[in-house]
Amino acid sequence: MSILVVGSVALDSVQTPFGERDRVLGGSATYFSTSASFFTDVNLVAVVGEDFPEEHTRFLNSRNIDLTGLSRVPGQTFHWKGRYGYDLNEAQTLETHLNVFESFKPVIPEAYADAQYLILANIDPELQMEVLNQVKQPRVVACDTMNFWISSKIEALKKVISRVDFLIINEGEARQLSGEVNLVKAARAIIALGVKNLIVKRGEYGVLMFNGHSVFAAPAYPLEEVFDPTGAGDTFAGGFMGYLANTGNLSDEGVRQAIIFGSVMASFNVEAFSLDRLKTLTYPEIEARYRSFKNMTHFQGVGEL
Ligand code: AMP
Pfam families, per this entry (predicted)? Predict the structure, then answer.
């Protein structure tokens, strides 16, 4: 099954302790789509400006991402500038220029209106809602957001959240959204908003999934070198939804496997700046790292335990 992705396509300027890059390819929907494209067909809806380099469009095309819904309009592409300190888990936003997103009205092409798998990547929650209202009967809806929208558009965001199957946010966002410091309490408060499953991303500490009846914990892959965490969350979400859409298996087991594929994809993405590592990644490398994850987390029962 194909996936419909709506979110930002951006030019990012990023500083980490290991270097910096100016106006490189980024954006929530870009990371998401590229990651998901290793598992299934992806249809992308977003907007870019006249300054968006043709080489980036060619790259997305090379991943077989359908760009019918990517509009190019007069103006500048969304631009995000961020910095990471030695604690690579949390980005500090230095500048956000919405640019062409300021007047963007997402129109879902007729051919995408029957999408079964929908990801509302990080974007203005009012736009997320407009998209949700245009997709007829999605089987699975996943949603991401960030502190910028939690503080500026909380009511719109809560309306969106009440309609999603998987809310995928980082631990700082979970605390901010719920007003609870303890993550278990935060999860309970967020599930009470109507979301069916909450996936909390914890950077180098992995992810936790809560759904009201069970909790699943996955570590992050221990890496010796992390260059740029930008997009790790979106790459996780892309692998997660891509695998679910590929198998259609929404059982607890299927969702757990999808979480590991998401973690595998995020672990590759942080190995280089921008989408550079995803550009060279191959499916056999993904499978090999999935196997390493399995070995790394396997332990035997003891007697009755
Ligand atoms: P992540 O590191 O997974 O949280 O996502 C990083 C990506 O989010 C970057 O490539 C940015 O271009 C994009 N981004 C940053 N701020 C926003 C925002 N306010 N709305 C939409 N996308 C954003």
Answer: PfkB
For the chain, how many structural domains are there in total? Answer: 1
Q: Whose CA is nearest to atom 20 of ligand 1?
A: 123
Residue 54's pLDDT is 97
CB neighbour list of residue 83: distance below 8 Å, 6 or more residues apart:
14, 15, 16, 91, 92, 94
Task: Output the CA 27–ligand 1 centroid distance in Å.
Answer: 5
Whole-angstrom Cα distance, residue 9 to residue 15?
19
28 alpha carbon to ligand 1 midpoint, in Å?
A: 5
The pLDDT of residue 89: 79
80 CA → ligand 1 middle, Å: 7
173 lines ligand 1 (CB under 6 A): no
302 occurs within a structural domain: no
The minimum-distance atom of ligand 1 relative to the CA of 79 is 12
DSSP characters for 152-194?
Answer: H-HHHHHHHHTT-SEEEEEHHHHHHHHS-SSHHHHHHHHHTTT
pLDDT given at position 272: 96
Ranges in the chain, pLDDT < 70 = none
Domain-located, residue 114:
yes
pTM above threshold 0.85: yes
**pLDDT single digits (tens) 228-265:** 999 999 999 999 999 999 999 999 999 999 999 999 99
The CATH number for 280's domain is: 3.40.1190.20
pLDDT tens digits, 70-110: 999 999 999 999 999 888 878 899 999 999 999 999 999 99
Give a yes or no: residue 256 inside a domain.
yes
Quick check: is 234 catalytic? yes
For residue 151, give every residue at least 6 positions away whose Cβ sits within 8 Å of its Cβ, in sequence order, or none: 176
- d(Cα 237, Cα 84) in Å, to the nearest integer? 21
User: Of 28, 128, 160, which is best to mutate to test ligand 1, by the most ligand atoms within 8 angstroms of its C-beta?
Assistant: 28
